[in-house]
Amino acid sequence: MASNSILDNPTRWERLGEPDGELEQMLKDGAKPRFTGTHDASKIHEMRKRWHPLFKAGADDVLRETGGEVIETEIFIPTRDGYQLRGLLYRSRKTPVSGAPLVLLFHGGGFCAGNAEAEAPGCITSAQAHGCVSISLEYRMAPEIKFPTPWDDCWDALVWICANASKLGADLSLGFVIGGTSAGGHLAIPLVHKARDEKLSPPVTGVYLNASPALAPQAVTEEYKALYRSRETLSSGLSLTAESISLYDRVMEPEFSSPYWSPLLWPTGHANLPPHFFQVCGADMLRDEALIYARQLKQNGVPTEVVVYQGMPHVFCAGAVESASLSLLNLDSPFESTFACFQFQTHDPFPAHAPDLGQSGVRDLERIWSGTSMLEVSILGTAQISQPGLASEAATSSYIKIASVVDQELSLSVRTIFCTFPSSFALHSPVPADTSQIAHAMHFFEELTGPTLVVALFCSLGGLSFGIDFGYWSGVLGMEQFAKVFGTYNASEDNYHIPSSWKSAGSGLPMAGLAMGALLSGFVGRPLGRVRTLQLSYVIALVGVVIQSTAITSYWQITVGRIITAVALGILANTVPAYLAEVAPLSVRGTLVNFYQFSIGVGAVLVATCNWGLYQRTDQWAYRTPIILQAVLPLVFLAGSFFMPESPRWLLGIGKADEARRELERLRPRADRDIIDQEIQLIAAAEEENKALSHGTWLDCFSNTNLRRTLIMIGVQSFQQAQGISFMSQYSVVFFQAIGFEDAYMINVLMSMCMAISSAFAFYLPDRFGRRWIMIVSAIIMAASLCSVAGITGFGPQATSKSTLNGAMAAIFLWQIFTSIGWSSCVWIITAEVPTLVLREKSITIATVCGFCVSVLISFVSPYIQDKGYGGLEGRIGLLYGGMSVAAAVWAFLFVPETGSRGLEELDELFRNQVSVFKFNRYETSGIGAQIHIVEGMPHQRQLADKEAMEEKAAEAAQMS
């Protein structure tokens, strides 16, 4: 092996190509090239089919051997023409959330083969051993595209990464290394020049080049001709030949004199570039141009380290040969022995001998030789780790050694290279966060804090208002006194009644008001915040109540008042679930959001009981009392709302981090301040990541992966109303009277109580068993129940017998139980969870407006299909809503993912990665959302105990030292 000194002795370059004895012997023993190429452009796709699975297998092996410590995430980076470049991001679970250095590698393959998995092993190692965030990036390849598209792709990715590094968990001020193997390095060289010339910020701090070209033979100048020999003398190499290079040139169609293709000729020179680390293969056609480029960098004052592997072919470490005997080995980690040597050398910069690697080390070295992963030194040469307690000379060592290890049983000699970090490379990794603290961070907010519970209870007033408003209307519609004052006289039946058209308008128009309120919340929610939006809604509600309660004989005045009140309820329907989801700890998010649905049930019980006690009165208080009752809750809320905390996530969304921290401290009074700060930082990073992917416009709700989220929300909201919930909330008393129940008001009270009690189960079940299957099973049972009601009451002469009505009542109550547990409670939980933060108001608005529009349609149409003299379906209407429940069950199975046990920011990652609905629950997240999940999962008592334990351990350690 040769190092930097070889640059000053060009006469020795030819000797670097002399065959390696061990390699020659392996070839004689039957070893064959692992990656066989082609000279036929029409067979490039076949070559990819051979190569790419090998790359993936190698990457999977290395990732598996980390034991789950390193997390892989598939990412996509946009280019100038809208194309999405695929990349694989790797991060250690021990990497601090405050940010880490970033390594960006481009794969080789002659610009016509290769994938992100090709450079993945080096990325995985840098993540595990050095705490880096590492990305292996793909780019578009020939023959599908031509020069210079790959350079444009990689430049666009470089700029995007600089702008979005924090969202990737990286801090480029700690280090930013780019590079690649072969064609990947060919891409990196021009990019680092362009980054220097265009003052890319943050700047690149190091460049890694493994067997990379720098000068096309068609562009060689007189200055370099005397040194440029290897393209001719090594044209029949083992893994790269003149014929293969000719193929790559033909399919890429480059401009040979372009500084992109021949960066050695870069017009602005090579001064002021970041440090470079070269791996050069001695028997490689590309050897001389790499050495010429390194020589130029050194002459221009650029810190440069060069390692030359004498007699080795092009990218031998990636699998130039494979030995038949290797299949007999139980191979271990390919990097363990190399890092063992690194640690040895770090403590002793100049050891007298190489460490004894033993059988495990031999297997590791065989793994490297077989090419199932990239050689570890691909990262070793591009970083410097600051390790407390080590001498500076040890940390800056650039010692290189060759060790030969012979396994007697296999009679196979193996070569490996050990090298530490050159002192010139500026990649600094901070000490990882204390892993014991993270390890115990699984259930931090398992218990509900007092302030958060108070917020949930106070917000439940919104649900009470909803339940009272729509519950009172179904009752007064059946009151004789209400019909006498506000209805019309029917001479043929000698009674007063509310005409079907009036019922339709009186029930349908307020539903339109709900839709208008939901739409309005999408415009005011973001600028006003959650608390002030709730205050606005209750002011509007009071105006509507005043208009209703002052109506003397005008049915339409009450209708107008109900429309205004419904606008307020539409705002509440959007804001309360979103607010509760944002302030709730992960483990109880479903519970807190369910407070809204549960309070709707409680409100319905209160007003149903009120109606039951008043419906036989013969004065105005029969109907005016429940109307006035609506005013109590807005007054109570407005009085206490000035003490409610604002949503920390909303505050972070508008850039008020300090206020967000204060509000989170109010909600988590027993949480450690460090954990609060960490959660705030992570949520802020997730918000910035979402802003980069979406500008927060209405159209963004229907673009890219947000479309799927929006359609899920629209679906659950629309199917909720279409299964009969809207009908029963407004026409329950009329419906019970139509199918023959004598005391419809008492049954309505019992139904409301059943709804409230069943909703209480939703405090536990969705967080325990998830949302998805509860909705699917509930829809199936709801369908069976409603079809039973239709069958019992709608057909045959016994439709109104006592036994028949008892059977129908049982089916209706069964329907109510599973409606409350499933499609009343879980719908609002999913609606609050699914949208991304930057689009939450708008997404929920769109979904609830669609749901309320379905409700409007049902409200207008139901009297005509239900009442005698029109459709006259009566009990048979259950077939219609039962059929919708069947459709809802099928739709939920196919499209609704399981969102339970996931943090809100984790859901962003799942949807962004387009995870299948059937894999949602098993997918392992690795981004910022996963870190927030960990932080939000820390039990505060345990975390405080751990902190005390850590302090005690620190004190003991100080005494021992």
From TrEMBL:
Transmembrane segments: 453-473, 505-524, 536-556, 563-581, 593-615, 627-644, 745-766, 773-796, 808-832, 844-865, 877-896
Major facilitator superfamily (MFS) profile domain mapped to chain residues: 455-900
Family (UniProt): Belongs to the major facilitator superfamily. Sugar transporter (TC 2.A.1.1) family.
Descriptive protein name: Major facilitator superfamily (MFS) profile domain-containing protein
Upper lineage: Eukaryota, Fungi, Dikarya, Ascomycota, Pezizomycotina
Region (Disordered): 1-20
Pfam family, one: Abhydrolase_3
Membrane disposition: Multi-pass membrane protein
A Gene Ontology molecular function term of the record: hydrolase activity
CC terms in the record's Gene Ontology section: membrane
Record PROSITE patterns: MFS (PS50850)
Keywords linked to the UniProt accession: Membrane, Transmembrane, Transmembrane helix, Transport
